[in-house]
Specification:
The complex is a heterodimer. Chain A folds into 2 domains: 208 residues, 3-Layer(aba) Sandwich (D-Maltodextrin-Binding Protein, domain 2), CATH 3.40.190.10; 191 residues, D-Maltodextrin-Binding Protein, domain 2 (3-Layer(aba) Sandwich), CATH 3.40.190.10. Helices cover 48% and strands 11% of the residues of chain A. Chain A contains 24 helices and 12 strands. In chain A, the strands form 3 sheets. In chain A, strands 1, 2, 3, 6, 11 and 12 form a 6-stranded mixed beta sheet that branches. In chain A, strands 8-9-7-10 form a 4-stranded mixed beta sheet. The longest helix of chain A has 25 residues. Chain A is globular. By secondary structure, chain B is mainly alpha-helical. Chain B has a single domain, classed as MetI-like fold. In chain B, 78% of the residues lie in helices and 0% in strands. Chain B is built from 15 helices and no strands. In chain B, helix 4 packs parallel to helix 9, helix 7 runs parallel beside helix 12 and helix 9 runs antiparallel to helix 12. The longest helix of chain B is centred in the N-terminal third of the chain and has 34 residues. The chains are: A alpha/beta, B mainly alpha.
């Protein structure tokens, strides 16, 4: 009988490793050919609407369906074969209500159209990174929804975005103002024409808030209507408040400052809030927004250099005089919130209503009684100053696999009742750019009315928007001015302040430096667009 | 052909697929113009300088501290207080960088940060940690050292555990001083581990991101960027892929030089 053949141990191990490697190569090749797109899929079919969404009594089919009890919804939902699936990349909500509202939206869409929506929620930064990688790989999501999608202008320029011009009529029907539409009109260098690169559907203002109790202690008026609107008086108001507060309460000396704006940090990363705040000061000093027929901004419009000089001069002077916290030079987007919450400043300027909404969730006394928001911004001559608005869009990618279905989604979404339910459900951080929707519900005008108290914050957004439209003082915020991320992100006005404070520049030198930088950046694309 | 000869093929395939191919793909995205613009870019030059300052200060400080602390942990390992410290000490390394960096940033805030509050309470002056370039660079280095020294301490501590106790006893009988013991007994025996730590620490420090992006946000006035954060900003904030990759590639020779020289020393030693 022959002995059983011995297996060489080393060969056995090598064979095993080889087999594992071959499987791994196969798997890698498969993944390479079919890159995974979805990292977190929200199963929309089973997600049920929340009460926050359904509290409205607007008598529409949509709401009626939503208010039905869970079991009824399931039984009345037609069992339809999905007519397709669209991929949506959406920003993670800041509050649970925002998440619920988005889920409700995709549920409703599927129920009414039979089209499935695979929604991936990510942070703002991750959306930027992922969309860029996916667009470069030729496999972008169908729709993107983000409130911090600063790269979109650049994506439009690169030809990555689908032209949404066909929605302009729908937007006009909803009474969306032209400046909102213009905020998303920019050049596609591949098509060599201006396109609508996003469908604007959300707005947030850049509000100012203050501590009423500090003003009261300082013996200053606390009513927003009593705060001056002439810029010099407005500035002196907060300075005086600080002086008096320090005098009356020595404990606050060196700890509480009158002016907590503009934030002057995060220039190297994402200046965000600070840039929006300094842009307001420029506008209040007469900065003009002028564009040519190709949508190119005339940055050096008459009076603009002067407005920037006054702005930089005022910031430098006020900082040096000790009316702003020393650390304001490095405040990033969250630091102004922290300074206000920790009661280190009397007044603050912010990129959204997140400061009062934080207090609404934490301490209603602070929200309703101790703090207030301004309704009127100042200007040099005392008339109501310009108000900037950040406009947020829904974006469809040019290489999206389901472009037509994505367009169907947007078309379906642009219904007043549906929009109204959505805005209310997301909890007040944003308002609709549609005047038609704004007038549909008392929520925007009244805000929160807990215990019968008057809301001193949310209604100011409504007031500013509506009055701003009448007075034509509403403008898009600085991120929309240049239609090119370079111009906005380099934050030259903020850098000019630093140049004066830290590098020994005069105000004139710093402003001329900033203007030259801006002109150089704009020239890099303006010449090309003008040649089309 | 023998099986042994073809066995490395999967590794070679993965190396090409995951290392060489992306490298070539990235290189192909850089235009000549991108590369040229770097040298006229003041911010790039400043960021390059910052990178060398950061590595030149942070790496030696971390490793010297790690040597010192590992000596304490090893020498007094039976002391209950040292035992407790040994457990608590690695915490900065273990906690997520994001939350650690943000709390560090807020602690260093000039007006309402806890560090300045403590200084004032002690009758000292406030320090403008994040407001001036030198102090902001110092803050970045402090955070990095605080976060990463525990890792290198653990590495050196474990290397010290392998040294036979008898060697120290003999040195003691011979009347060697602490420095002589370190020079002639400890260091020669942990030298290889130390060099590995030096290599890894240098390479990883070049890629440090959180300390800059989150602690100073590149401030004041974008003066504390290193190539890592500046390249990231160029790519993901500006969408300027070519220039961003060109920035990263510009420090590639330095990374390779550091790695090769340390590997050379390691091989010569062994």
């Amino acid at each position: 009988m022959s002995e059983p053949k011995k297996v060489d141990r080393r060969k056995f191990i090598y064979a095993g490793l080889g087999a594992v490697a071959l499987i791994a190569i196969g798997a890698a090749a498969y993944v390479a050919m079919n890159p995974p797109v979805v990292t977190q899929t929200v199963t929309t079919a089973t997600t049920l609407p929340t009460t926050s969404v359904v509290t409205t009594t607007v008598p529409t089919t949509v709401v009626t369906t939503v208010t039905q009890p869970t079991t009824t919804v399931i039984t009345t939902t037609p069992t339809v074969t999905p007519l397709g699936t669209i991929s949506m990349m959406a920003e993670s909500g800041w509050y649970p209500q925002e998440e619920e509202a988005k889920r409700w939206l995709v549920t409703m869409f599927k129920r009414e159209t039979g089209i499935n929506v695979e929604m991936v929620t990510l942070t703002q930064t991750d959306i930027l990174k992922k969309t860029m990688a996916m667009a470069m790989a030729g496999n972008p999501p169908d729709i993107v929804y983000s409130t911090g999608f600063t790269g979109t202008q650049d994506y439009c320029w690169k030809g990555w975005i689908e032209d949404a011009t066909e929605f302009i009529d729908d937007l006009k029907k909803l009474e969306v103002p032209d400046w909102c539409i213009k905020a998303y009109t920019w050049a596609d260098s591949k098509k060599r024409k201006l396109i609508l690169f996003g469908v604007p559907f959300l707005l947030n203002n850049v509000p100012m808030h203050y501590w009423k109790d500090f003003l009261e202690k300082a013996g200053m008026p606390t009513n927003p209507d009593e705060i001056p609107t002439k810029f010099s008086d407005f500035s002196n108001f907060w300075k005086e408040a600080q002086d008096r507060l320090w005098e009356k309460d020595p404990d606050t000396k060196g700890k509480v400052y009158g002016i907590g704006w503009p934030s002057l940090g995060a220039i190297g990363t994402a200046p965000g809030d600070g840039l929006q705040q300094i842009a307001h000061i420029m506008l209040w000093h007469g900065w003009k927004l002028e564009y040519d027929s190709k949508g190119i901004i005339n940055i050096d419009a008459s009076g603009n250099r002067d407005a920037l000089k006054k702005t930089v001069g005022w910031v430098v002077e006020t900082y040096k005089a000790g009316y702003m916290p020393k650390g304001i030079l490095t405040w990033g987007p969250a630091d102004n919130n922290t300074a206000f919450h920790s009661r280190s400043v009397i007044s603050v300027h912010n990129g959204s209503m997140s400061i009062p909404l934080y207090w609404y969730s934490q301490d209603k006394t602070v929200y309703f009684e101790k703090t207030a928001s301004l309704t009127k911004f100042p200007s040099e001559d005392g008339t109501r100053g310009k108000q900037t608005w950040q406009v947020h869009p829904l974006v469809i990618f040019a290489d999206a696999k389901n472009k037509e279905l994505a367009k169907k989604f947007i078309k379906w979404f642009l219904q007043p009742e549906l929009l109204n339910n959505f805005y209310k459900a997301i909890g007040g951080r944003f308002i609709p750019p549609s005047k038609a929707v704004l007038e549909m519900d008392p929520f925007y005008k009244q805000g929160y009315s807990d215990s019968g108290k008057v809301d001193p914050h949310l209604p100011t957004v409504y007031e500013m928007y509506v009055e701003g439209e009448k007075l034509k003082i509403n403008v898009p915020n600085i991120e929309h001015w240049f239609q090119f991320p370079f111009g906005a992100l380099d934050a030259y006005p903020m850098q000019a302040v630093h140049k004066v404070l830290e590098e020994g520049f005069t105000v004139d030198e710093a402003v001329n430096w900033a203007m030259e930088k801006w002109l150089t950046v704009i020239k890099s694309y303006a010449d090309e667009v003008r040649s089309w | 052909m023998k099986f042994e000869e073809i066995a490395p093929l999967p590794f070679i395939f993965f190396f090409i697929f995951l290392m060489i191919y992306p490298l070539i793909l990235s290189l192909s995205m850089i235009s000549f113009k991108d590369a040229l613009t770097l040298f006229g870019d003041e911010l790039y030059i400043r960021s390059l300088k910052n990178l060398f300052i950061f590595i030149g200060v942070a790496v030696p400080v971390k490793l010297v501290l790690a040597l010192f602390i590992s000596a304490i942990l090893s020498g007094f390992r039976r002391n209950p207080i040292v035992k407790l410290l040994g457990v608590i000490y690695p915490l900065p390394w273990a906690i997520p960088a994001m939350s650690a960096a943000l709390s560090f940033r807020w602690s260093l805030n000039y007006d309402f940060g806890i560090v300045n509050k403590m200084l004032v309470d002690l009758g000292l002056w406030k320090i403008p940690w994040l407001l001036t370039y030198p102090t902001a660079m110092l803050s970045i280095i402090l955070f990095h050292v605080w976060k990463w020294t525990p890792l290198w301490t653990l590495m050196l501590f474990s290397a010290r555990q392998a040294i036979p106790e008898e060697l120290y006893e003999v040195a003691k009988i011979d009347g060697a001083s602490l420095f002589q013991v370190f020079k002639n007994v400890t260091f020669p025996l942990i030298r290889n581990t130390f060099l590995v730590c030096l290599l890894l620490s240098s390479v990883w420090s070049m890629g440090e991101f959180e300390a800059i992006w989150l602690v100073t946000m590149g401030d004041p006035n974008a003066s504390t960027h290193t190539i890592t954060t500046l390249g990231f900003r160029e790519i993901f904030a500006y969408g300027n892929l070519g220039k961003g990759i060109a920035m990263y590639f510009s420090v590639f020779p330095v990374v390779v030089a550091v790695m090769v020289s340390i590997i050379f020393i390691l091989r010569r030693e062994s």
